[in-house]
């Protein structure tokens, strides 16, 4: 048989009369009276909550016109708030009176009053202005005010977290059908206190709460405020809480992605290690292990790339992000790992699989063959008569652009390994000139091959001299009148880094190109990316990286 939880009006009037008397008197007798009645009062408050939670806020106020007066007085009584579960029960009662969609100024004012009471209950700082009996009571217990209310807040947060996780305490159950509006109200009440360290467990519990509702139950204001505080490093959240935030609230994920891009563009970073550190610190690559997050972030990157006309800085960010995402995906347990095709569902899957293969999973002797395989598949797709629109062509190019490491290796193999160059030249020609027709791309390949052949002539056992380098630059310049500048710059950069003794003359070369005003950020990005790969492979010592850092400093002064 169900228990009757209706609040009798005589009981209500009795406790309201008690609350008024307790607030008017500060004598020892009055304090004793409060303490003697606390167990019965808590039982009454539970009964009030059980009644209110089945009512609309308007109906509740109509049936109990003085409910606000009662709860307001009890919230400011330190003996009531400090007793057992009373503080939490007062909070839930206030939540029941909160209008999720206020219709008039009276309801708006009531909501504002309720929020102020919740702030008062949650915030330890506001207790400092309490009346004299508060400090007397606390000192009798052997606490300072700061210690007492700090523990009070922590206990209240712990209790709320337990309820949000589905535990039942004293008959209160957050998993009821009507819990959605209550959770929404709690999320709103947290707004002024989001940066309070003691509140972090409650923030995380709210973000991870799954109520089974068809629509989002946490307030958008709460989600936006948590995201802003996280991006500004005002709060620290667990990875699972952050991922849940971005899955629940698309605007927060978009803002986090744009914030990362702004951060990377606005600060001077001297190496890809620094770029990778900033990206990894954002938690976006780790969150991208969820396909929905990856595809949204990827779409934002694509739009930014289009808006900036494919700048090298944005391309480099995308490529480093992709590498970090793949590392994070690899570290996922099999139980939680999504298949890689879930991240690129609309692309030619054999090509996706080949591009996703990490270079260091293969022996270096197989790199050229793997690149030829990629180039052949790509060529078949691009020259397919069904690929007619510019948008389709861009999508294919954008997929390839994620994997800059394979493009770097293609340029490296052209100069270091005895390979048939056509497939690798076609791959680079498509990457740097995706809009070209077949005939134009063939002409680009012919001219790029001429640059490559000239540079190969300088690869010899003897140490490279600055004159050799100047001659190479002069020849490349002449060919560049017809060939794509970025492609020839890529080949020239690799020549500089991989030729025998090239790093010895690189500094002199850098001075030369800076004085001639021939250098740009394209060269800068290629140098950084290539040096990063050399350093990770252990094929070169730190001199190359040190040289490139010095180069960047000079470049910054001359652009």
Topology diagram in text:
Layout: H1 9-24, H2 28-52, H3 57-63, H4 67-75, H5 78-81, H6 86-97, H7 105-122, H8 132-140, H9 145-164, H10 179-189, H11 200-208, H12 220-231, H13 239-248, H14 250-266, H15 272-281, H16 284-287, H17 291-307, H18 312-331, H19 349-356, H20 367-382, H21 390-401, H22 404-416, H23 421-432, H24 438-458, H25 466-480, H26 485-498, H27 502-515, H28 521-537, H29 542-558
Helix pairs in contact: 1-2, 1-4, 2-6, 4-6, 6-7, 9-11, 11-13, 12-14, 13-14, 14-17, 15-18, 19-20, 20-23, 22-23, 22-26, 23-24, 24-25, 24-26, 25-26, 26-28, 27-29, 28-29
Describe the structure.
It is a single chain. By secondary structure, the protein is an all-alpha fold. The protein has four domains: 115 residues, no CATH class; 83 residues, no CATH class; 91 residues; 212 residues, no CATH class. The chain is 70% helix and 0% strand. 36% of the residues are buried. Pfam families: Fanconi_C. It comes from Nycticryphes semicollaris. This is FANCC protein.
Q: Output the structural class.
A: mainly alpha
- What is the global morphology? elongated
Distance between the termini: 82 Å
Please tally the β strands and state the result.
0
Structurally, the number of domains stands at: 4
Give the number of helices. Answer: 29
The main sheet comes to: none
| Helix fraction bin | 55-70%
Overall radius of gyration: 33 Å
**Percent of residues in beta strands:** under 5%
How are helices and strands ordered from N to C?
A: HHHHHHHHHHHHHHHHHHHHHHHHHHHHH
Stretches with pLDDT under 50, minimum 5 residues: 124-134, 167-178, 534-546, 551-559
């Amino acid at each position: 048989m169900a228990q009757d939880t209706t609040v009798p009006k005589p009981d209500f009037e009795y406790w309201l009369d008690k609350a008024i008397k307790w607030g008017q008197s500060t004598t020892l007798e009055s304090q004793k009276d409060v303490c003697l009645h606390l167990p019965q009062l808590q039982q009454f408050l539970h009964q009030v909550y059980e009644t209110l939670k089945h009512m609309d806020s308007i109906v509740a106020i109509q049936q109990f016109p003085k409910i606000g007066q009662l709860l307001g007085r009890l919230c400011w009584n330190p003996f009531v708030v400090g007793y057992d579960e009373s503080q939490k029960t007062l909070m839930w009662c206030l939540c029941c009176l909160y209008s999720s969609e206020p219709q008039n100024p009276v309801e708006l004012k009531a909501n504002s009053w309720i929020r102020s009471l919740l702030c008062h209950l949650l915030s330890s700082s506001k207790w400092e202005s309490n009346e004299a009996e508060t400090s007397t009571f606390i000192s009798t217990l052997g606490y300072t005010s700061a210690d007492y209310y700090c523990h009070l807040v922590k206990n209240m947060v712990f209790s709320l977290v337990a309820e949000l996780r589905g535990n039942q305490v004293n008959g209160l159950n957050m998993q009821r059908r009507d819990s959605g509006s209550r959770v929404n109200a709690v999320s709103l009440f947290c707004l002024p206190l989001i940066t309070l360290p003691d509140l972090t467990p409650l923030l995380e519990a709210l973000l991870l709460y799954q109520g089974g509702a068809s629509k989002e139950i946490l307030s958008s204001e709460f989600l936006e405020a948590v995201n802003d505080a996280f991006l500004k490093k005002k709060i620290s959240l667990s990875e699972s809480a952050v991922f849940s935030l971005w899955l629940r609230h698309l605007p927060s994920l978009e803002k986090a992605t744009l914030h990362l891009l702004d951060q990377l563009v606005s600060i001077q970073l001297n190496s890809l290690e620094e770029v990778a550190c900033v990206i990894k610190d954002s938690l976006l690559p780790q969150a991208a292990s969820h396909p929905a997050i990856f595809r949204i972030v990827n779409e934002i990157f694509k739009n930014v790339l289009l808006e900036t006309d494919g700048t090298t800085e944005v391309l480099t960010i995308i490529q480093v992000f992709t590498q970090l995402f793949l590392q994070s995906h690899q570290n996922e347990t099999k139980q939680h790992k999504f298949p890689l095709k879930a991240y690129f569902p609309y692309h030619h899957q054999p090509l996706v699989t080949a591009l996703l293969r990490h270079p260091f999973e293969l022996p270096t002797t197989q790199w050229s063959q793997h690149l030829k395989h990629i180039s052949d598949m790509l060529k078949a797709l691009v020259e397919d008569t069904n690929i007619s629109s510019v948008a389709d062509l861009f999508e294919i190019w954008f997929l390839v652009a994620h994997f800059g490491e394979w493009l770097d290796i293609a340029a490296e193999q052209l100069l270091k390994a005895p390979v048939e160059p056509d497939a690798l030249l076609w791959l680079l020609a498509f990457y740097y000139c995706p809009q070209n027709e077949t005939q134009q791309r063939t002409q680009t390949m012919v001219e790029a091959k001429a640059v490559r052949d000239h540079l190969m002539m300088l690869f010899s056992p003897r140490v490279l001299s600055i004159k050799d380098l100047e001659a190479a630059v002069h020849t490349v310049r002449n060919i560049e009148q017809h060939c794509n500048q970025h492609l020839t710059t890529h080949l020239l950069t690799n020549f500089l880094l991989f030729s025998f003794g090239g790093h010895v003359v690189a500094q002199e070369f850098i001075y030369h190109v800076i004085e001639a005003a021939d250098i740009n950020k394209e060269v800068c990005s290629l140098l950084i990316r290539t040096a990063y790969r050399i350093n990770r492979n252990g094929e070169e010592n730190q001199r190359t990286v040190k040289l490139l850092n010095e180069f960047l400093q000079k470049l910054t002064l001359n652009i």
